[in-house]
Amino acid sequence: MDKINDINIGLMAIKNIFQLTFRQTIRSKRTILMLIVSYLPVFFTAYYRLAEPQELIPPNLVLYHIMIFYLLFVSILVSLFYGTAVVGDEVDNKTIVYLFTRPIPKYSIIIGKYLTYIVGVILVVVPPILINFLIISTDSDMSSDFRTTLDIFGKQLGVIILSLIVYGSIFTFFGARLRHAIIIGLLFAFGWEKIILVVPGIVRKASIVHYLLSIFPIDPSFHQAIERVSKGTFSGVSSSIITISIVTIIFLVITVFMTYKREYKFE
After folding, report:
1. Judging by beta carbons within 10 Å of its beta carbon (0-12, 13-18, 19+), is residue 68 exposed, middle or buried?
2. CB neighbourhood size of 204 (10 A)
3. Residue 266 domain flag
4. How far apart are alpha carbons 99 and 58 in whole angstroms?
5. 157-173 pLDDT, tens per residue?
6. Of 208 and 6, the one with more pLDDT
7. Is residue 206 part of a domain?
8. Does residue 134 fall inside a structural domain?
9. What CA–CA distances, in Å, run from 64 to 50, 98, 153?
């Protein structure tokens, strides 16, 4: 009976933390900045449709580059700014002590805030991606094989959401454990994760982006070009998904474990 009560208390705490943090997140200046970044490609897509340079750049290729831009830049940047703030804001504002003194499990605080992060970043990133697709899909050249394009787009969107989840868990740990988490996160996200793209061989497997690109579906007409660039270094789909899932769980568990062991003291 005690265990059931503890679980109920934990679930209720997660719900309350989620509701409280979600309101704070939506109203923050960070959200305005990330919305601007997320909607920037929409202006490029609208210009493409108005200028109609389809003879020079096929719409499928434009859509592919837009989705890659969201995967390799927008999703990582949004994850960095929101992820490091999951616990980092509470540490910076010296309010985390008050959260931990409440009669609720510490894990519920991390889980509740991380769930808020997931919902928040999806609301920021996914709508502009859908708008980009709707604008591109109005091109007459897309109608010939629209079902295949829609299927590929849906899977690409799934990979982008997966990138938000995995990078979010990593940056949540950064924010909870490290000082200057934003700077270190930038070095990791746009240093290591980008440099590794041009490094040949097995070293690529020491990055998250390698596994995300391994499961990122592409238009069949681009297969040969992508293979020449990747030189066959992609991992299998199943192993990539498993690896990403393990990394996500490990960093969340470490973050929760650390909150139980670390004492936050402020002068």
Report:
1. middle
2. 20
3. no
4. 53
5. 999 999 999 999 999 99
6. 208
7. yes
8. yes
9. 19, 46, 9
